[in-house]
Write a structure and sequence with these properties.
globular, about 110 residues
Length: about 110
């Protein structure tokens, strides 16, 4: 770099100011996540299908049963919620590998108002 070159570091990321007391952070959204309930459900189904290949046989059986419920036509809300709870439970038990599935479950629950 020579002395004539202009080198500047540009701003990257959010810029915000916080005033007052008891502030704990900012609330943000993940813009690349599906906002359509059906798209979010399909994303979850796809993630569960990948996850099922990475879990033990007994956990795979839970995921398969839950996938059956998720792919039914006109599934009852309670059955949908129970299936999502089972999927979330398996995802949380296996740790970091299950995090994308657990997040997708939360998104589906929110978008379907469950």
């Amino acid at each position: 770099m020579t002395g004539d070159e202009d080198f500047r570091i540009g701003h990257v990321g959010d810029n915000f100011q916080v005033y007052g007391t008891n502030n704990i952070g900012k609330i943000g959204t993940q813009n690349n996540a599906p906002q359509d309930p059906q798209a979010a459900l399909q994303e979850l189904i796809d993630l569960v299908q990948v996850l099922r290949g990475r879990v033990r046989e007994d956990d795979r059986a839970v995921l398969d049963e839950s996938l059956d419920t998720l792919t039914e036509d006109h599934v009852e809300r309670g059955a949908l919620r129970r299936a999502l709870g089972s999927i979330s439970g398996v995802a949380q038990l296996i740790g970091e590998v299950g995090l994308p599935v657990a997040e997708a479950v939360r998104r589906v629950l929110a978008l379907f108002g469950l």
